[in-house]
TrEMBL record:
This is ABC transporter. The chain crosses the membrane at residues 87-107, 134-155, 204-224, 230-248, 311-333. Residues 430-671 form the ABC transporter domain. Residues 91-373 form the ABC transmembrane type-1 domain. Keywords: ATP-binding, Membrane, Nucleotide-binding, Translocase, Transmembrane, Transmembrane helix, Transport.
Length: 676
């Protein structure tokens, strides 16, 4: 009950006093003892609020029959386990913590001694002696507290780094379908704010919990032994205050949530409007939108004022009540002084002890809320860390055993045992055997319906069909971004799933419609994925060759920094055509047996298209090529054309054969519109 009251009190204080919720004033009274918290990031208060509101929505853990409680317990144990990996810093922190607590516990007693030496002994010498001790222990307390904080901060940081690395590693190993289903913003917030919340809260609360428990036990024992009557008085008002806090806390909580909801609505509306500025401008709705926004702000103001008014009640309940306890202690203590049961200095010391105890218990109440917050964040993070990708990631960097992947994948290439092919060889034949595909994010749409075709090594094959017919999906399957729902994709006669993914990445390259470059040098962009095992000189040789094949060497050499030129954020320092040629060079640098081209020129203007087309023609030589293009000249030259419609192969053959057949392809050509 006491813990609940204290947690509610702290929580409401944070809500109502943005930026003022410092621990020094948390008891509304005076305190000699420094109140310090370490490791809490500035945003922690507001995060705590969100979590608490969320927790409230879900119902309290106790009410849910222990389900949430037990899962949170499991998560918390796991988190503690992570923290324990830094046991050396934790142990050191604990030593400083005990030292700081002992010196802190002596301070009220020494203050009492100073007062007694002034009031009772009236001895300057005794006063100076007591003051010297007080100074010494105050300084020691400050020093040990600082050292304790440092140790726990190091634990926080180390833990945070470890969780982030594990999370990032796990994210990047997930199958592509996972990224269809999870928004980039959500994943990055897992990576930043959730991991911070986890480590901050665990570090902070371990620190606070250990400190408060050590302090509370010590203080309570001392108070009971020295002044048991006054100790009892201290606890008289607690049940009363607890009841008040429950009733008032609920009301205040509802108000705070209403403000938060309204703020979220307001932000969502503004985001929508800013994101669709063209529409707003073209309909001339700027003023109208400002008016709407203002109305929403007015509602926030109204709720905010209501919340601010409720602050009076909050102050009265939560700050006035402990002060009344102090008054009661002073009243009884004063009488004890008059009846010579107590010395004035001892009374002052007791009041300080009472304040310290109240703060220590207060902090223990906060620990629960903090830990729940950490568990909430950790739940989402551990979900991703523990998630097994549906397809196995490249084994080179794979820390999962192949058994941990849900599809039957082998951790090494099967070819060496089952055929004469060595690891470095791939002939490049591709076969689709009755392949069907349903995307995990759209389980009700059959995107490919028993698609079958065969491509011989070294052939150039064009996939044509209207937009949405399933061309890119075929390429995604060859890249193993998705697993077929039915049928099989074969490479050199063997199922794609029997190959090691890193082998596939080395031998299959893809150039997409929108080149994705990274904010790194051109050299790094072209060499992307080559691996560290390639030596510097060899790497340069291969990059230069690939750039030449991709007709990119000319413009790169014209640049001041050549291959060291920085590509800019998402390649923003380059033109569209240049970016695409870098992307082609990146695909060619590994000299792939199979080249997949998915509308590589369709996002370009005519001038760049001609340059990139030249690069593509060059790059097709000597390998199996599956091309999706809208230029008739590219399609015409293909050894085979496969026509897709609504996920079905409707025709296949050469340009000539298909024209003669007079079917879907002939129709597409006769329309003389670009075939996309
Ligand atoms: N990642 C995805 N998740 C869900 N549906 C998808 C995804 N990619 C494509 N689709 C759907 O699959 C169908 C075929 O798409 P796609 O293969 O990209 O066609 P094309 O390349 O021929 O234009 C379309 O209906 C499209 O909406
Ligand atoms: Mg496409």
């Amino acid at each position: 009950m006491l813990a609940e009251f204290l947690a509610a009190r702290r929580y409401l204080k944070q809500r109502s006093q943005p930026g003022q919720g410092d621990a020094n004033s948390s008891d509304g009274g005076y305190s000699l003892i420094p109140q310090e918290e370490v490791g809490q990031s500035p945003g922690s208060c507001s995060n705590l609020e969100e979590e608490e509101v969320d927790a409230d929505k879900e119902g309290s853990p106790k009410e849910e029959g222990g389900v949430t409680l037990s899962s949170h317990k499991r998560i918390l144990w796991r988190l503690f386990g992570l923290a324990m990996q830094e046991w050396s810093y934790l142990a050191l922190g604990l030593v400083f913590l005990v030292a700081a607590s002992i010196s802190q516990a002596l301070l009220p007693r020494l203050t009492g001694d100073v007062i007694n030496s002034i009031v009772i002994d009236k001895s300057e010498e005794d006063m100076e002696e007591a003051l010297r001790s007080l100074t010494l222990f105050s300084l020691l307390c400050a020093l040990f507290s600082g050292l304790r904080g440092t140790c726990f901060l190091v634990v926080n940081t180390k833990m945070n780094i470890r969780i982030r690395k594990d999370l990032y590693q796990s994210m990047l190993k997930q199958e592509i379908g996972f990224f269809d289903q999870n928004k980039v913003g959500d994943l990055t917030s897992r990576l930043s704010s959730d991991t911070n919340k986890m480590s901050d809260q665990i570090g902070l609360n371990l620190n606070v919990c250990l400190r408060s428990v050590v302090q509370s036990i010590g203080l309570l024992a001392y108070m009971l032994l020295s002044q048991w009557r006054l100790t009892l008085v201290t606890f008289i008002a607690v049940p009363l205050v607890s009841l008040l806090s429950k009733v008032y806390g609920h009301y205040y909580h509802l108000l705070a949530k209403a403000v938060q909801d309204q703020q979220a609505r307001c932000n969502a509306d503004a985001e929508e409007v800013i994101g669709s500025m063209r529409t707003v401008r073209s309909f001339g709705c700027e003023e109208e939108e400002v008016r709407r926004y203002e109305q929403e702000l007015q509602e926030i103001l109204r709720l905010g004022i209501k919340q601010a008014s409720a602050y009076t009640g909050y102050m009265f309940c939560f700050t006035g009540a402990p002060l009344l306890v102090t008054v009661a202690v002073l009243y009884f203590g004063g009488h004890m002084v008059f009846t010579h049961l107590l010395q004035p200095g001892d009374l002052v010391a007791f009041v300080f002890y009472q304040q310290s105890l109240s703060q220590a218990i207060n902090s223990i109440g906060d620990v629960y809320a903090g830990l729940m917050q950490a568990a909430g964040a950790a739940d989402k993070v551990f979900d991703i860390i523990d998630r097994r990708p549906a397809t196995c990631p490249p084994s080179s960097s794979c820390s999962f055993s192949s058994a941990s992947c849900s599809s039957p994948t082998h951790s090494s290439l099967l070819l060496s045992s089952s055929s004469e092919l060595s690891k470095e060889q791939l002939q490049g034949s591709i076969t689709f055997q009755e392949v069907s595909l349903v995307y995990p994010s759209r389980p009700d749409a059959l995107v490919l319906d028993r698609v079958s075709f065969h491509i011989d090594p070294g052939q150039v094959v064009a996939l044509v069909g209207s937009s949405g017919s399933g061309k890119s999906s075929c390429i995604s399957l060859i890249e193993r971004f998705y697993e077929p729902t039915g049928g099989e994709v074969l490479l050199d006669g063997l199922s794609l799933s029997s190959y090691d993914n890193s082998f596939l990445r080395r031998h299959i390259s893809l150039v997409g419609q929108e080149p994705v470059l990274y904010a790194r040098s051109l050299l790094e962009n072209i060499a992307y994925g080559l691996g560290r095992e390639v030596e510097e000189a060899e790497l340069r040789r291969r990059v230069t060759l690939a750039a030449r094949q991709a007709c990119a060497d000319e413009f790169i050499m014209r640049m001041e920094d050549g291959f060291s030129t920085h590509a800019g954020e998402r390649g923003s320092h380059l033109s569209g055509g240049q970016k695409q040629r870098i992307a082609i060079a990146r695909a060619l640098v590994r000299n792939p047996s199979i080249l997949l081209l998915d509308e590589a020129t369709s996002a370009l203007d005519t001038a760049s298209e001609a340059q990139v087309q030249k690069a593509i023609d060059e790059s097709m030589k000597g390998r199996t090529v599956l091309v999706i293009a809208h230029r008739l000249s590219t399609i015409q030259r293909a050894d085979k054309i496969i026509v897709l419609s609504n996920g079905l192969v409707v025709e296949q053959g050469t340009h000539k054969e298909l024209l003669e057949a007079g079917g879907a392809y002939a129709e597409l050509v006769s329309k003389q519109v670009s075939i996309d």
